[in-house]
Design brief:
Strand content: 25-35%
Largest sheet: 5 strands, mixed
Order of helices and strands: EEHEEEEEH
Radius of gyration: 23 Å
Shape: elongated
Number of helices: 2
Distance between the termini: 44 Å
Number of strands: 7
Number of domains: 2
Bound molecules: zinc ion
């Protein structure tokens, strides 16, 4: 096991490295650990299953991750937990005097894998999420959570000028 924040590509043995690890939530949330924005919504450690292999002059980092996060439903505002998962895929190269742009790194090829994982979780982030696929949301008039049953608002207003709007599906 190598410290995720202090990988040096130059040290990679011919057999490569493999991580099958629970990356501590405390590290992913720690502002001091790396330059990619820290994560603040984790409800668990993140599981990372990732391989680093050298192929020719390139270093391939590939695998998958999953984490449990706390979200608010975009329809009913209820707090709920959901699992996020995604792929990790990066190709690094080493070059003398490189600036670190485009994943071409100067020797000895320092990589902060914690940043890579943070970045992947941010990239998979969706702005709108629902607590369940058939969440009924809140009544637009009285604010009642319609998952708990219908509210007392009148529904028979077919001659209301904006009645047609009620049939529109608004996915905020
Ligand atoms: Zn909901
Ligand atoms: Zn209502």
């Amino acid at each position: 096991m190598h410290e995720l924040q202090k990988i040096q590509l130059q040290d990679l043995p011919a057999s490569g490295w493999h991580w099958h690890a629970d990356v501590p939530r405390s590290q992913l949330e720690d502002e001091q650990c790396g330059h990619v924005d820290a994560l603040h919504m984790l409800n668990s450690d993140a599981r990372w299953d990732v391989d680093l292999q050298r192929q020719g002059g390139c270093y391939h980092l590939s695998g998958s991750w999953q984490a449990r996060v706390g979200r608010d439903c975009s329809r009913c505002n209820a707090a709920f937990e959901m699992d996020m998962q995604g792929e990790t895929l990066r190709v690094f190269q080493l070059a003398k005097g490189a600036t670190g742009e485009d994943d071409v790194l100067p020797l000895p090829g320092k990589v902060n894998l914690l940043d890579v994982l943070r970045e992947d979780i941010w990239l998979a982030w969706r702005l709108t999420v629902v607590c369940k696929p058939d969440c009924k949301g809140l009544c637009q008039r009285c604010g009642k959570d319609l998952n708990d049953g219908p509210c007392a608002c009148p529904t028979d207003d077919g001659d209301h000028p904006f009645a047609a709007l009620r049939t529109l599906k608004l996915d905020k």
